[in-house]
Amino acid sequence: EVQLVESGGGLVQPGGSLRLSCAASGFTFSRYWMYWVRQAPGKGLVWVSRIKTDGSSTSYADSVKGRFTISRDNAKNTLYLQMNSLRAEDTAVYYCAREHLTETAVDNWGQGTLVTVSS
Amino acid sequence: QSVLTQPPSVSGAPGQRVTISCTGSSSNIGAGYDIHWYQQLPGVAPKLLISGNSNRPSGVPDRFSGSKSGTSASLAISGLQAEDEADYYCQSFDSSLSGYVFGTGTKVTVL
Protein backbone atom coordinates (compact mmCIF):
# COMPACT_ATOMS: atom_id res chain seq x y z
CA GLU A 1 0.00 0.00 0.00
CA VAL A 2 1.32 3.43 -0.98
CA GLN A 3 1.90 5.66 2.03
CA LEU A 4 3.05 9.28 2.16
CA VAL A 5 3.49 10.68 5.66
CA GLU A 6 4.34 14.35 6.11
CA SER A 7 5.95 15.84 9.19
CA GLY A 8 7.61 19.05 10.28
CA GLY A 9 4.67 21.42 10.25
CA GLY A 10 3.95 23.84 13.08
CA LEU A 11 3.84 27.44 14.17
CA VAL A 12 6.59 29.73 12.93
CA GLN A 13 7.07 33.50 13.04
CA PRO A 14 7.08 35.62 9.87
CA GLY A 15 10.55 35.56 8.34
CA GLY A 16 11.31 32.21 9.91
CA SER A 17 12.16 28.84 8.39
CA LEU A 18 10.72 25.36 8.50
CA ARG A 19 11.61 22.06 6.86
CA LEU A 20 8.91 19.62 5.89
CA SER A 21 9.59 15.94 5.36
CA CYS A 22 7.56 13.27 3.62
CA ALA A 23 8.32 9.61 4.28
CA ALA A 24 7.30 7.40 1.38
CA SER A 25 6.65 3.67 1.51
CA GLY A 26 4.88 0.94 -0.42
CA PHE A 27 6.39 1.83 -3.80
CA THR A 28 9.75 2.39 -5.50
CA PHE A 29 10.24 6.03 -4.50
CA SER A 30 13.13 6.67 -6.91
CA ARG A 31 10.94 5.98 -9.96
CA TYR A 32 8.45 8.77 -9.33
CA TRP A 33 8.35 12.52 -9.74
CA MET A 34 7.08 14.11 -6.52
CA TYR A 35 5.11 17.25 -5.66
CA TRP A 36 4.27 19.57 -2.83
CA VAL A 37 0.77 21.07 -2.95
CA ARG A 38 -0.69 23.43 -0.36
CA GLN A 39 -4.15 24.50 0.72
CA ALA A 40 -4.79 27.59 2.83
CA PRO A 41 -7.63 27.27 5.35
CA GLY A 42 -10.94 27.28 3.51
CA LYS A 43 -9.24 27.84 0.15
CA GLY A 44 -8.37 25.82 -2.93
CA LEU A 45 -5.41 23.68 -3.90
CA VAL A 46 -2.21 25.38 -5.03
CA TRP A 47 0.72 23.63 -6.68
CA VAL A 48 3.98 24.54 -4.91
CA SER A 49 6.83 22.51 -6.34
CA ARG A 50 7.83 19.42 -8.31
CA ILE A 51 11.02 17.34 -8.42
CA LYS A 52 12.31 14.77 -10.88
CA THR A 53 13.01 11.18 -9.95
CA ASP A 54 16.74 11.72 -9.35
CA GLY A 55 16.43 15.29 -8.05
CA SER A 56 18.17 16.78 -11.08
CA SER A 57 15.23 18.95 -12.12
CA THR A 58 12.95 21.09 -9.96
CA SER A 59 10.22 23.67 -10.56
CA TYR A 60 8.36 26.10 -8.33
CA ALA A 61 5.29 28.29 -8.25
CA ASP A 62 6.17 31.97 -8.62
CA SER A 63 4.82 32.65 -5.12
CA VAL A 64 7.54 30.52 -3.49
CA LYS A 65 10.40 30.77 -5.97
CA GLY A 66 13.62 31.83 -4.27
CA ARG A 67 12.25 31.07 -0.81
CA PHE A 68 11.39 27.35 -0.95
CA THR A 69 13.64 24.45 -1.96
CA ILE A 70 12.42 20.98 -2.81
CA SER A 71 14.79 18.04 -2.50
CA ARG A 72 14.75 14.29 -2.03
CA ASP A 73 16.86 11.48 -0.61
CA ASN A 74 16.10 8.32 -2.57
CA ALA A 75 18.19 6.22 -0.18
CA LYS A 76 15.88 7.27 2.64
CA ASN A 77 12.68 7.35 0.55
CA THR A 78 12.09 10.87 1.77
CA LEU A 79 10.94 14.10 0.13
CA TYR A 80 11.72 17.50 1.65
CA LEU A 81 10.57 21.09 1.42
CA GLN A 82 12.84 23.71 2.94
CA MET A 83 10.81 26.88 3.51
CA ASN A 84 12.61 30.15 4.26
CA SER A 85 11.47 33.75 4.66
CA LEU A 86 8.01 32.55 5.56
CA ARG A 87 5.06 34.90 5.24
CA ALA A 88 1.56 34.89 6.67
CA GLU A 89 0.22 33.93 3.25
CA ASP A 90 2.24 30.69 3.39
CA THR A 91 -0.08 29.44 6.11
CA ALA A 92 -1.63 26.25 4.76
CA VAL A 93 -1.85 22.50 4.92
CA TYR A 94 1.06 21.16 2.87
CA TYR A 95 0.50 17.90 1.02
CA CYS A 96 3.21 15.62 -0.25
CA ALA A 97 2.04 13.95 -3.46
CA ARG A 98 3.20 11.38 -5.99
CA GLU A 99 2.92 11.93 -9.71
CA HIS A 100 1.47 9.13 -11.82
CA LEU A 101 4.14 7.07 -13.55
CA THR A 102 2.98 7.89 -17.09
CA GLU A 103 0.84 11.01 -16.70
CA THR A 104 1.17 14.33 -14.91
CA ALA A 105 -1.72 13.56 -12.58
CA VAL A 106 -1.17 13.17 -8.85
CA ASP A 107 -2.21 9.63 -8.01
CA ASN A 108 -1.41 9.53 -4.30
CA TRP A 109 -1.51 12.14 -1.56
CA GLY A 110 -0.29 12.32 2.01
CA GLN A 111 -2.56 13.38 4.84
CA GLY A 112 -0.99 16.84 4.98
CA THR A 113 0.84 18.85 7.61
CA LEU A 114 -0.28 22.28 8.81
CA VAL A 115 2.11 25.23 8.65
CA THR A 116 1.02 28.37 10.46
CA VAL A 117 2.99 31.58 10.02
CA SER A 118 2.08 34.06 12.70
CA SER A 119 3.63 36.24 15.35
CA GLN B 1 -6.05 33.63 -8.62
CA SER B 2 -5.90 30.51 -10.75
CA VAL B 3 -5.72 30.51 -14.55
CA LEU B 4 -8.23 27.64 -14.59
CA THR B 5 -11.71 28.87 -13.75
CA GLN B 6 -14.45 26.69 -12.31
CA PRO B 7 -17.96 27.60 -11.10
CA PRO B 8 -17.92 28.05 -7.30
CA SER B 9 -20.81 25.66 -6.82
CA VAL B 10 -23.17 23.29 -8.56
CA SER B 11 -26.05 21.32 -7.10
CA GLY B 12 -28.44 18.59 -8.06
CA ALA B 13 -30.95 16.14 -6.68
CA PRO B 14 -30.02 12.50 -6.11
CA GLY B 15 -29.97 10.63 -9.40
CA GLN B 16 -29.50 13.74 -11.52
CA ARG B 17 -26.55 14.56 -13.76
CA VAL B 18 -24.34 17.57 -13.06
CA THR B 19 -21.39 18.97 -14.95
CA ILE B 20 -18.46 21.05 -13.76
CA SER B 21 -16.61 23.22 -16.25
CA CYS B 22 -12.93 24.12 -16.18
CA THR B 23 -12.11 27.07 -18.43
CA GLY B 24 -8.54 27.79 -19.38
CA SER B 25 -6.64 29.39 -22.23
CA SER B 26 -4.21 28.80 -25.06
CA SER B 27 -1.33 28.38 -22.61
CA ASN B 28 -2.84 25.44 -20.76
CA ILE B 29 -5.87 23.44 -21.90
CA GLY B 30 -5.83 24.98 -25.38
CA ALA B 31 -2.16 24.07 -25.79
CA GLY B 32 -3.05 20.41 -25.50
CA TYR B 33 -1.93 19.76 -21.94
CA ASP B 34 -3.83 17.04 -20.13
CA ILE B 35 -6.55 17.83 -17.63
CA HIS B 36 -6.93 15.87 -14.41
CA TRP B 37 -9.76 15.99 -11.89
CA TYR B 38 -9.72 15.50 -8.12
CA GLN B 39 -12.38 15.01 -5.50
CA GLN B 40 -11.82 16.34 -1.99
CA LEU B 41 -14.19 15.23 0.71
CA PRO B 42 -14.41 17.46 3.80
CA GLY B 43 -11.33 17.32 5.99
CA VAL B 44 -9.31 14.84 3.94
CA ALA B 45 -6.71 14.88 1.20
CA PRO B 46 -7.80 15.05 -2.44
CA LYS B 47 -8.29 11.90 -4.48
CA LEU B 48 -7.60 11.43 -8.18
CA LEU B 49 -10.87 11.06 -10.06
CA ILE B 50 -10.00 11.47 -13.74
CA SER B 51 -6.56 11.50 -15.36
CA GLY B 52 -5.48 12.33 -18.89
CA ASN B 53 -8.75 14.16 -19.68
CA SER B 54 -11.01 11.14 -19.54
CA ASN B 55 -9.35 8.14 -17.85
CA ARG B 56 -10.82 6.73 -14.65
CA PRO B 57 -8.35 5.18 -12.21
CA SER B 58 -9.21 1.80 -10.82
CA GLY B 59 -11.97 2.02 -8.23
CA VAL B 60 -13.56 5.23 -9.52
CA PRO B 61 -17.23 4.62 -10.42
CA ASP B 62 -18.17 5.01 -14.07
CA ARG B 63 -20.67 7.66 -13.00
CA PHE B 64 -17.73 10.06 -13.29
CA SER B 65 -16.55 11.06 -16.75
CA GLY B 66 -14.26 13.72 -18.18
CA SER B 67 -13.97 15.48 -21.51
CA LYS B 68 -11.96 18.27 -23.10
CA SER B 69 -12.60 20.60 -26.02
CA GLY B 70 -10.68 23.66 -27.10
CA THR B 71 -9.72 25.71 -24.06
CA SER B 72 -12.19 24.03 -21.71
CA ALA B 73 -12.78 20.74 -19.98
CA SER B 74 -15.71 19.23 -18.11
CA LEU B 75 -16.36 16.71 -15.40
CA ALA B 76 -19.75 15.02 -15.43
CA ILE B 77 -21.32 13.16 -12.55
CA SER B 78 -24.32 11.08 -13.50
CA GLY B 79 -26.68 9.40 -11.05
CA LEU B 80 -25.68 11.88 -8.35
CA GLN B 81 -25.36 10.34 -4.88
CA ALA B 82 -25.13 11.87 -1.41
CA GLU B 83 -21.54 10.64 -1.11
CA ASP B 84 -20.58 12.79 -4.11
CA GLU B 85 -20.97 15.92 -2.02
CA ALA B 86 -17.43 17.32 -2.06
CA ASP B 87 -15.09 19.87 -3.62
CA TYR B 88 -13.81 19.13 -7.13
CA TYR B 89 -10.66 20.54 -8.75
CA CYS B 90 -9.25 20.42 -12.25
CA GLN B 91 -5.49 20.52 -12.86
CA SER B 92 -3.23 21.10 -15.84
CA PHE B 93 0.12 22.55 -16.90
CA ASP B 94 0.49 26.18 -17.94
CA SER B 95 3.30 27.07 -20.33
CA SER B 96 3.18 30.79 -19.49
CA LEU B 97 3.71 30.05 -15.81
CA SER B 98 6.00 27.08 -16.52
CA GLY B 99 4.20 25.23 -13.78
CA TYR B 100 1.22 23.20 -12.79
CA VAL B 101 -2.06 24.84 -11.89
CA PHE B 102 -5.24 23.79 -10.15
CA GLY B 103 -8.66 25.16 -10.93
CA THR B 104 -10.50 27.43 -8.52
CA GLY B 105 -12.57 24.53 -7.23
CA THR B 106 -16.26 23.66 -7.31
CA LYS B 107 -18.41 22.60 -4.38
CA VAL B 108 -21.00 20.02 -5.32
CA THR B 109 -24.12 19.93 -3.17
CA VAL B 110 -26.62 17.09 -3.29
CA LEU B 111 -30.05 18.52 -2.59
Describe the structure.
The complex is a heterodimer of chains A (119) and B (111). In chain A, the strands form two sheets. In chain A, strands 2, 4, 5, 6, 9, 10 and 11 form a seven-stranded mixed sheet that branches. A four-stranded antiparallel sheet of chain A has the order 1-3-8-7, with no helix packed on it. The N and C termini of chain A lie far apart (40 Å). The model of chain A has no long low-confidence stretch (mean pLDDT 97). Chain A has strands spanning 3-7, 10-12, 18-25, 34-39, 45-51, 58-60, 68-73, 78-83, 92-99, 106-109, 113-117. Chain A is built from no helices and eleven strands. With 119 residues, chain A is mainly β. By secondary structure, chain B is mainly beta. In chain B, strands 1, 3, 4, 7, 8 and 9 form a six-stranded mixed sheet that branches. A three-stranded antiparallel sheet of chain B has the order 2-6-5, with no helix packed on it. In chain B, strand 7 and strand 8 form a beta hairpin. The radius of gyration of chain B is 13 Å and the shape is globular. The chains are: A mainly beta (119), B mainly beta (111). Chain A binds chain B through residues 35, 37, 44-47, 50, 59-62, 95, 100, 103-112, and chain B through 2, 33-34, 36, 38, 40, 44-48, 51-52, 55, 57, 87, 89, 91, 93, 97-105.
Summarize this entry quickly.
Helix content of chain A is 0%, strand content 51%. Chain A has 119 residues and is mostly beta strands. Chain B has no helices and nine strands.
Question: What distinguishing features does this structure have?
Answer:
heterodimer; A: about 120 residues; mainly beta; 7-stranded mixed beta sheet; 11 strands
